[in-house]
């Protein structure tokens, strides 16, 4: 797909390992995706990692070093995540809000986001991704964490 095309262009236009790794890193940083089911997510991440290894081996006739693999694996783990695409949260993470009552009958309120539909006001865990070009204010390093739904505004 899209990543294969990016890597094909890199393979055609880059000659050194250092340049190739830098360009491949950018290609992976700009390729995002989500999956609802955890097992499919694992398979997609594995496929992206093998794509990196196979392209590097094809270009340089050797395997990439562990440091390069770990760097790409980190990018893959942030750029492919598990999400309910209709809600923008981790699947099945929305819960009813329970307000304790003095009389023993707790008041149960369903998730407002699930009731109204859409991406906002969910009680679930909102999915985080990284903007690889922006600095994280907490660590002062590149790779600012942002909520996926904040990109939709």
3D structure, described in words:
With 153 residues, this protein is α+β, with helices and mostly antiparallel strands. The protein has five helices and six strands. It has helices at residues 2-13, 17-29, 38-60, 66-79, 112-116, and strands at 33-35, 80-82, 97-99, 107-109, 128-135, 142-147. The strands form three sheets. Strands 1-2 form a two-stranded parallel ribbon. It has a two-stranded antiparallel sheet with strand order 3-4. The longest helix is centred in the first third of the chain and has 23 residues, at 38-60. The two termini are 27 Å apart.
Brief synopsis:
With 153 residues, this protein is α+β, with helices and mostly antiparallel strands. It contains 5 helices and 6 strands.
- What is the helix tally? 5
- Helix content bin: 40-55%
Number of strands: 6
Spans of at least 5 consecutive residues whose pLDDT stays below 50 are: none
Described by the principal axes of the CA atoms, the overall outline is: elongated
Q: In terms of structural class, how would the helical and strand content be classed?
A: alpha+beta
Rounded to the nearest angstrom, the radius of gyration is: 20 Å
Q: Roughly what fraction of the amino acids lie in strands?
A: 15-25%
Query: What's the end-to-end separation, in Å?
Result: 27 Å
Instruction: Tell me the series of helices and strands, N- to C-terminal.
Output: HHEHHEEEHEE
**Most strands sheet:** 2 strands, parallel
- Overall average residue pLDDT: 94
Strand order of the largest sheet: 1-2
